[in-house]
Amino acid sequence: MRRHSSGSSEDGDTSPVEAPHVNSSNSSTWRPQARSQSPTKPEHHHRTSADPRASSSISRRSTSINWKTLDTRNGTTEKLPSPTRSTPPSPLSLIPTANGVQRPREMEKAQESMFAARHNRWRSPWAISLLALFASIAGIGFLLAVLHSSVTRQIDPKGCRMSYMRPSYAKLNDFDTEHTRLASKYSLYLYREQGIDHDTRVRGIPVLFIPGNAGSYKQVRPIAAEAANYYHDALQHNSAAFARGVRSLDFFTVDFNEDITAFHGQTLLDQAEYLNEAIRYILSLYLDPRVSDRDPDLPDPTSVIVLGHSMGGIVARTMLIMPNYQTNSINTIITMSAPHARPPVSFDSQIVKAYKDMNDYWRHAYSQQWANNNPLWHVTLVSIAGGGLDTVVPSDYASVESLVPDTHGFTVFTTTIPNVWTSMDHQAILWCDQFRKVVTRTIFDVVDVHRASQTKPRAERMRVFKKWLLTGMETVAEKTAPRSDPNTLLTVDENSDSIIAQGERLVLQKLGTAGSVRAHLLPIPPSGSPDVKRFTLLTDVKLDNPGENGKLEVLFCSVIPSQPGQTGPGFPSQMDLSKGTTGTTRLACRNAASDGITLPASRASNRYPFFVDGEKEVLPFSYLEYEVDDISEHQFVAVVEKTTTATAGFVIAEFSDYAQSHVTKRTGLQRLLAFGLKLRLPAVRPMVTEVKIPSLQSSLLAYHLQIGGQTCKSKTELFAPLVRQYLTEPYESKYFVNARDATVSLHGVAPYVPPPLTRRPAGEDGLSFQFWTDPTCNSSIQIELTVDWMGSLGKLYMRYRTVFAAFPLLVVALVLRKQFRVYDNTGVFISFTESLDLCLRQSIPLMLTSLTFLTLSTASNAPSGNASFWHWKNSTSPLIDFHQNDFLIGTADPMFLFLIPLIGVICVGVCTVLNYVTLLLTHLLSIIFSLLTFRPGWVRNDDRKKQANSVFSPSSPRRRMVTTAILLFLVSTCIPYQFAYLVACLVQLTTTVRAQRIASELRSAANSSFYNYVHSILILMLWILPINMPTLVVWIHNLAVHWLTPFTSHHNVLSIMPFIVLVETLTTGKIVPPVTGRLKHVTSILLFGIAIYAVVYGVSYAYTLHHLVNLVAFWLAILHSTSDSWSISGLRHLYSGVAEDRKGGKEP
């Protein structure tokens, strides 16, 4: 008969389950004895080995738990007595030092011994201390408050109108594997609108639509249908548009089989490679007379306009860095809800690298001083973000300010775009009717079929984009009317009373009351006046263009010197208002309608800036705004009432002092958070008042704006207060009509978003408000801005939801570290909740406090004079660190350092919930296994024991070794290691279920320790599982579409082998041996390093967490193997759990 070590397990052995050995030189070794039939208490033998090597041998010996039940009598299982130590430490005793003072390290050991002494009795893993309970409840409470706020507070209203189309798609089958290796996976289609497009011949300008993550090629239909209908109804017979080079648009779209690009870098690169070949093929179609119906006098197209949704916009930018990119084949990119600034998640190393390579290329290209050295000089990039309703991709990530200068692109929100004025979710941005109309008109305005590039030059394209997508009130908006050619000759009577006195305001409450055409002339102040002036005009009627016969026209006029016999040839439009009198003045005028700004109508009946389906269309207001310097070369502003009958409508026009209309409140953020901001607008004030608050820049805070006090008494107000909130970078504006109170949120400085290429002056940063109020009411207005604390909680959800892939590992790693430290010192592996209680008393608070002060010191040590370093003068300064926000909470602003402990507390609650969910799952599975192995009462005891053993006994060592070898071979060839990791998690779950059942049936310290050990390892692996799941989903999706080509990455055997070895070792019932020497610090250092890395770098580089935990698994596998020498027999022991006694391994 073979002789085995006390901790071994072998088939047929029915020895009692033993507790782990205490492998410490200062601890006695105890072994529980089986209960005898006599009533005497079990004896405890204290042996001292004479061999000086005994202590080291014991410290390296592993402990095995026998998966078999004990011998039974009368159908009942005998239980072991509660093991006790020969000299258990007193929980309340202090360890004095030489001077009688207790050292912190010794206090910690005493605390650990207290837990170990308590754990000598079987302790339920469900138990939790009051400290851990309160901390967990607080964490879950904060999390629920954040989630509740995100769905109930600060929600933008939905204003999209439904779009309709009659789609058809023509698959281009000739684009096959002869053109690209990916043709068997992806397909290219040409969109055609039924009833308008009658064939599939290409005749217009090519536009390529790229769907996003898991998107469909059919998502092109709303915009493509609108383009077809608009050209058919409005442009094809417009001779002026035809002369400008406007033609129909040929929309091509790609079927990616709903590929998942947001989580997998290789898929992103594959799509970019395929699309470059697709563009080459699309351009070749226009050279083939069999499929092309273009005018032969037109140049052949050399580029394609690209329209990308979500990750499709990232694919579009990636195409320009691919080796198969055809130079100048792309010069216009419009993206919708695309995360340009950073990847949505960092679970895959390749997508992080793809983003870095792509963004570095774009920044380097625009850092070149000369255009010839910039491969992207002719490329324009416009990023359109959906705003607060987009809960798929944070709209902060849509910013391109860190990638391109404002001469080549910008970021704009849909709430800014005229006649759109609504936020949109991730999918609505494709079908929103008012938005698709703006996009198609913008594309038609940038195309020029007379050029080979099919588009206008870059500078003209940028002007078109700013005209259609911005409000017109931005500093970059160009005013064209004052410098245009005179187009109207206005003749007025010199003695007319239509000239408004200097400094007075023009107010028309109705139009056409004079019964004839009438002009109101406002003298323009001289340019060098001491008070800076600006001209503003607001009306609720449309401003006429030259030659139109509407109600109202605004002109900038200059006096024509009187010359005998001169007439007015050369003016397309003439208006003679002199009434035949002899004293007349002739004015050469320029129409101002081209600079008209569209504002949402604000009346007492309006609720939102937009109208939805089923509501009556609301005509917008028209607004003009000029600095005096812009119109200083003219003498008058002429407001012409062209209607001759009394018509409803108002006009307010005035010149106002800059000092009266602009207010800058340099209130610190701390003071604003504490007391809010109150402002009073006097009764005598300009029509438009602008308030700038430079300290309001963060997107993490939400506010509540209240406007009150305006009363018109007996008069009827011309319009209700209208408020615009806006940022200068990115271009985000929101309008509040009939404003009495408003919820204010912004997308300004956001966590984890890189800094911009250009740093604006301090005065231009921050949130601004524009107030349009009726100045005829002669009443003051009270404005109050306060922080919406509950609404601000909801802003944390979108900005910090990815932290839960990393920050909880801080808690789990520290808890596991404490468990190993207690185990190495006492031989008892305490439960997860017991270790969490210990960590909450010291390590977790210290860690969070240290990280907070570290971030604070880093922020305070940053030089304040670095503003010049951020200035971009046609070159990207190497001092700009675009990765400075990649760490910790993504911001160094001291105001938000409280987020570190707040997120830490939330993670404590989340980890506690996961712990109990795992406990519940293992208990449910254990109950299911018990039902499956139910033994009727008439079954013999021996048969009952055999049935139990058959369910819970591990498989043979040979089978486990073969399974491991096959799994590793598959990982190295065809399956990603993420699949093997999922298998490892399932195996570990099974092991935990078996350990839970044994620990509950045979309540002993040894069984409890092993169960706590495998349970904590399972918790650690479960937190890594979400990082691996996206790649596994991509692989399964590829199999579903019959794409069997393996990934070029994710086949590293070393990335999964330690996990497989560890979980297979745990199936044998072996607990890791305690380590009493210096090597025990290795486990502590590894877990402490994971905790630090998870908090500092985990959000931006989450994929590395798998490899760090893999390193811990490798170290634990080594510890498991130290019970035998490094040999083939040792490897067999690692899988079988059979270890021979080091001192007496011979068979009798």
UniProtKB/TrEMBL annotation:
Start-end of Low complexity biased regions: 51-65
Swiss-Prot/TrEMBL GO biological process terms: endoplasmic reticulum to Golgi vesicle-mediated transport; GPI anchor metabolic process; protein transport
GO function term, MF aspect, one: phosphatidylinositol deacylase activity
Top-level EC class: hydrolase
An example Gene Ontology CC term for this record: endoplasmic reticulum membrane
UniProt cross-references to Pfam families, sorted A to Z: PGAP1 (PF07819), PGAP1_2nd (PF25141), PGAP1_TMD (PF25140)
Entry-linked InterPro entries: AB_hydrolase_fold (IPR029058), PGAP1-ab_dom-like (IPR012908), PGAP1/BST1 (IPR039529), PGAP1_TMD (IPR056824)
Entry similarity comment: Belongs to the GPI inositol-deacylase family.
Protein name: GPI inositol-deacylase
